[in-house]
Specification:
Radius of gyration: 28 Å
Strand order of the largest sheet: 8-7-6-5-4-3-10-9
Shape: globular
Number of helices: 28
Largest sheet: 8 strands, parallel
Strand content: 15-25%
Length: about 750
């Protein structure tokens, strides 16, 4: 239980006596109404950031430059200290871990109980929904109740559509989150506006200033904290029409609201740029950070992937977005949004923060040494646009006895690590299943989520006919078998891919062991530039990038891709990730952070996960985890993509139960994206990338969307999942679930 503080005592007394005492002495608290009136009160008096679209910003502030402190070592971006009750955000302070309550805010007792559980778990801050005056009054009672129980964990009010209510609740909580997309302009009709000029667009800033300035003044007077939280899914019609559904639109929307804050000399705020698509999220935060560098702003960043989902997939998607930015040194507070009870968000939130802190060069000599050990290179990545480096797949020749063009997939490849005992007569049918093969009379053939190739450090003996037959059958349907060349020399396997270190391959001039069909090369990052450039002449079927432990994986991998770019090397690059993780959730976080941070830059054509030490996971689990990583990085889609919000006090149905039902009914539809939204706030917008949407609109009622269009309204909850299935069928995107096969048992019996 949190220790009671003087802050808690003072504020509890203040609440009971209607005296404001949330904050200690501050110049802002002493501001009189006369003093406030000295600041701009209308849009025409505000000094707005120069326009990006007209090019004025480039003229006044210079070209867009860096987005992080250091491209070659992990260094936190220097940010100001922002105070939120007893906690502080900023680069001089630890990363703040936060979550969001899922209770109805009006249910004061239930909210207090859940917030206490979150505080006891270790969270530093909890956000609550405030839809109207009833919830604003409840927020004051929740704050008072927590103080009385000895908990001074700060509360953040999540505000949408209600500028006046935001001012009311500022009396009760330490932080206000406003959404620029719907604070003053919350229309959800996606009506396209036409702006003939920049002047037409900025003319509408007047109503933004009119709605927002009073809240800014209130927060300044009370020294409350604020988050300007842009969501990709809820950009205003105005911004969508002028900038499009883009990271640039998200950034410009936030900058407008920051300009209003700054016009009032109010700086106690942080930014966020959330999206359900990790690539959009990463690009938006990087773009905002780059803009702040050239504007000489130092406001902290709150990181999060919104509507991430649940389980390993939700953790993976969050790790891809959050972990990538933390590796850049960006981020001062973190929330992992899962479709689970808020207490379960703590472990991934805390783990990502710990991983980030362990990478910092300034406080971790080992990390600093690994980053400094990476050979010099020039980082030329363009953070303003996503462009994937796509390796050229191998081509089958007339002499080839197997189809090498199927060893990899153009949208991202999954390689699975296999050991000889898995190929025995009794085990082979189960291995086919673990690798994702379909089988017919015991013979394997590839399906949508079958491993593209397998990796074997050792082979079964030449006279092990059953194991060799199993390998031959997989190769005959286009599965590559990658084996170290040294092993193939001792234990030949016809049509195998021979794996050599780059040094070995260069010394052998690419000569293959007897029977090998192609060459694969492993790079560990210790090679010099000239040696890596020889990959082009050696012409391997793929390169496995497995960075030496003495080097920073992130920076050494980036160096390899820069050398590839400079030498026009288009060989497919597979990240070879070795892990001793014993927990599935930790593995998802590791992969999302360490490999996802490279894939979000478009660097990589696939993943090989190899367990070292104790075997903790099945081949099937690692295969599915690898495919989840590729799908989370928007590369290869092998299952239904679910965009599901994490639930909050606005949710109009049991989100966890409903999401489980929808996943059970529609989870077998690769290429289809289904959004499950508890309310309308982010619904239509976050469904921008979704094919179908399931959105709570009234208690007990659901609207169904096709894209951004409502196609069925007010469906009773009990009928809504079936109605969603029928909707998918009506757009010819449905297929029936396949019957559970009994091929494994039949094959064993044979």
């Amino acid at each position: 239980m949190a220790k009671i503080s003087l802050y808690a005592v003072a504020t509890a007394i203040a609440l009971a006596t209607n005296v404001d005492a949330f904050v200690g002495p501050s110049p802002a608290v002493k501001s009189s109404s006369l003093h406030m009136s000295a600041y701009p009160t209308s849009a025409e008096d505000i000094l707005w950031t120069p326009s990006w679209k007209t090019g004025e910003r480039d003229e006044v502030n210079g070209a867009l430059g860096k987005y992080c402190e250091d491209l070659y070592s992990v260094t936190r971006r220097k940010t100001r200290t922002v105070t939120c009750g007893p906690i502080k955000f900023g680069s001089d302070h630890p990363i703040v871990r936060q979550t969001m309550a899922t209770t109805d805010t009006a249910n004061v007792d239930a909210s207090i109980e859940q917030i206490i559980r979150c505080a006891d778990k270790g969270f530093d801050l909890v956000r609550i929904t405030v839809q109207g005056k009833r919830e604003a009054n409840a927020a004051a009672k929740i704050r008072e109740g927590l103080f009385k129980k000895g908990y001074d964990i700060p509360l953040c009010a999540d505000m949408h559509f209600q500028p006046v209510v935001a001012q009311l609740v500022a009396d009760a909580v330490e932080k206000i989150r406003i959404n620029p997309g719907n604070f003053a302009d919350g229309r959800k009709d996606f009506e396209e506006k036409v702006y003939e000029s920049e002047a037409d667009y900025v003319k509408e800033r007047e109503y933004l200033a009119e709605a927002f300035i009073p809240l800014v003044q209130k927060c300044k007077e009370l020294n409350r904290c604020m988050r300007i939280g842009t969501n990709h899914g809820s950009l205003s019609s105005r911004v969508l029409s002028y900038y499009g559904d883009t990271p640039r639109g998200m950034v410009e929307s936030a900058i407008e609201f920051a300009d209003i804050c700054r016009s009032q000399d109010y700086h106690n705020f942080v930014f966020s740029m959330k999206a359900s698509n990790p690539l959009v999220m990463v690009q938006s935060y990087r773009l905002l950070a780059s803009e702040m560098y050239r504007l000489d702003w130092d406001y902290p960043l709150h990181l999060g992937v919104t509507e991430a989902g649940e389980g390993e997939d939700g953790r993976m998607k969050s790790a891809v977005g959050i972990g990538t930015l933390l590796a850049d040194g960006l981020g001062d507070t973190v929330r992992v949004s899962l479709t689970e009870d808020p207490e379960f968000e703590y472990e991934p939130c805390n783990r990502l923060s710990e991983m980030s802190e362990a990478r910092l060069a300034a406080t971790n000599p080992d990390s600093a040494a690994r980053q400094a050990a990476v050979k010099k290179y020039v980082d030329t990545r363009d953070i303003t646009a996503y462009s994937r480096r796509t390796g050229v797949l191998p081509e089958k020749t007339e002499e080839d006895k197997v189809d090498v063009s199927l060893f990899l997939n153009p949208n991202g490849s999954v390689l699975s690590s296999v050991v000889p005992k898995m190929l025995s007569q009794d085990s082979a049918p189960y291995l086919y299943n673990e690798l994702g093969f379909k089988t017919a009379v015991g013979m394997p053939f590839k399906d949508i989520a079958t491993s593209d190739s397998i990796f074997m450090r050792t082979l079964p003996a030449v006279d092990d006919a059953n194991a060799r037959t199993a390998l031959r059958r997989m190769m005959e349907v286009g599965t590559g078998v990658i084996v170290p060349a040294e092993e193939l020399t001792k234990n030949p396997l016809e049509n195998a891919v021979a794996l050599m270190s780059l040094t070995e391959a260069a010394e052998a001039n690419g000569q293959l062991p007897d029977g090998a069909i192609r060459l694969a090369i492993e790079i560990d990052g210790t090679e010099d530039d000239d040696l890596i450039a020889k990959v082009k002449d050696l012409n391997p079927v793929m390169v496995l990038i497995g960075i030496d432990p003495s080097l920073s994986q992130l920076h050494a991998s980036r160096r390899v891709f820069e050398i590839f770019k400079a030498n026009d090397i288009d060989t497919p690059a597979i990240h070879h990730y070795k892990t001793d993780a014993g927990d599935s959730n930790n593995l998802a976080l590791e992969l999302g952070t360490k490999v996802g941070s490279l894939l979000t830059d478009g660097n990589g054509d696939g993943i090989l996960i190899e367990q070292v030490g104790e075997t903790n996971f099945s081949v099937d689990f690692l295969r599915n985890t690898a495919f989840s990583l590729l799908q989370g990085c928007r590369m290869r889609n092998t299952k239904t993509e679910f965009v599901s919000c994490p639930s909050c006090g606005r949710t109009l149905f049991d989100l966890q139960e409903t999401t489980a039902k929808i996943q059970d009914a529609t989870g077998h539809l690769p290429g289809v994206t289904v959004a499950v939204m508890g309310c309308i706030v982010n619904g239509p917008g976050e469904m921008a990338d979704a094919d179908f949407g399931y959105v709570g609109t009234l208690p007990g009622k659901v609207d169904l969307y096709y894209g951004k269009e409502v196609v069925r309204k007010s469906i009773p909850n009990d009928d809504a999942v079936d109605a969603l299935v029928e909707l998918i069928k009506s757009y010819d995107m449905w297929k029936d679930k396949e019957e559970v096969e009994e091929e494994v048992e039949e094959a064993v019996a044979a």
